[in-house]
Design a protein that fits this description.
There is one protein chain. The chain has 9 helices and 12 strands. It has 249 residues and is α/β, with parallel strands linked by helices. It has one domain: P-loop containing nucleotide triphosphate hydrolases (Rossmann fold). The radius of gyration is 18 Å and the shape is globular. The mean pLDDT is 87.
Length: 249
């Protein structure tokens, strides 16, 4: 029997001596889409950062396994090379570094190569930019500099497509997007999944509207740093109607 793609076991984590995650358990299999929902301060973005290995947080208990291998103590770059990808809620701008330069370095690191040809990366980029309805001129622009919110989020999906992760974590990728930009991002995720059907996706969101587009296999409710309920898409609909009060008592 194959190992789960991602297995989180009794995970506890803190920042500045404040406990945020409290014995969290989660299993994501290859090809599945899981959604994490919860009220503000529940620990959703903390979970994303801890899974990616952010040094801001300290894991105090538990394990994180990727394909059966314990990665709890791995550095972020080691996790990225192993196939973990995080799409940020607020992607940073990096002046002086073009999108194509950034992706050339990132893809080379993901594949364990010293260098990749600009032409090879550019050809892959152009193909995916067309699929994601991105202007090809973005390739030469400085990373996220002067990009709108929607452009930054589409650029994150472009990175996900080229880096070919095994696990993609989308941390409130729908935050601040209008309905058209949301549709483009959701379509981009769907396109990448069609190309890579074994990709596991963990979506952190406040809103049902993104989940309507992504059709998650499992929806989890996170409250006070632990998952308190799991179910199908109907759970997201219940949250949309009634909020989180039923799980906060």
């Amino acid at each position: 029997m194959a190992n789960p793609l991602l297995e989180v076991i009794d995970l506890a984590a803190s920042a500045d001596d404040v406990q945020i995650l409290n014995g969290l358990n989660l299993t994501v299999n290859a090809g599945e889409v899981h959604a994490i929902m919860g009220p503000n301060g529940a620990g959703k973005s903390t979970l994303s950062s801890v899974l990616m290995g952010s040094p801001v947080y300290q894991v105090t208990e538990g394990q994180i396994k990727l394909d059966g291998e314990d990665i709890t103590l791995w550095a972020p770059d080691a996790r990225a090379k192993a196939g973990v990808f995080l799409a940020f809620q607020h992607p940073e701008a990096i002046g002086g570094v073009s999108v194509v330069q950034f992706l050339r370095q990132a893809v080379a690191a993901r594949k364990g190569l010293d260098e990749l040809s600009v032409l090879e990366v550019r050809m892959d980029m152009m193909e995916w930019m067309e699929r994601l309805k991105m202007d090809s001129a973005f390739a030469e622009r400085h990373l996220n500099e002067g990009f709108s919110g929607g452009e930054r989020k589409r650029n994150e999906i472009l990175q996900m497509a080229l880096l070919e992760p095994t696990l993609a974590i989308l941390d409130e990728t729908d935050s601040g997007l209008d309905i058209d930009a949301l549709q483009i991002v959701a379509n981009g995720v769907a396109t990448v999944r069609q190309e890579r059907p074994d990709l596991g996706v963990l979506v952190v969101t406040h809103y049902q509207r993104l989940l309507n587009e992504l059709n998650p296999d499992v929806v989890h409710i996170l409250v006070d740093g632990r998952i308190v309920a799991s179910g199908g898409p109907e759970l997201a609909a219940e949250v949309e109607t009634n909020g989180y009060e039923a799980w906060q008592s």
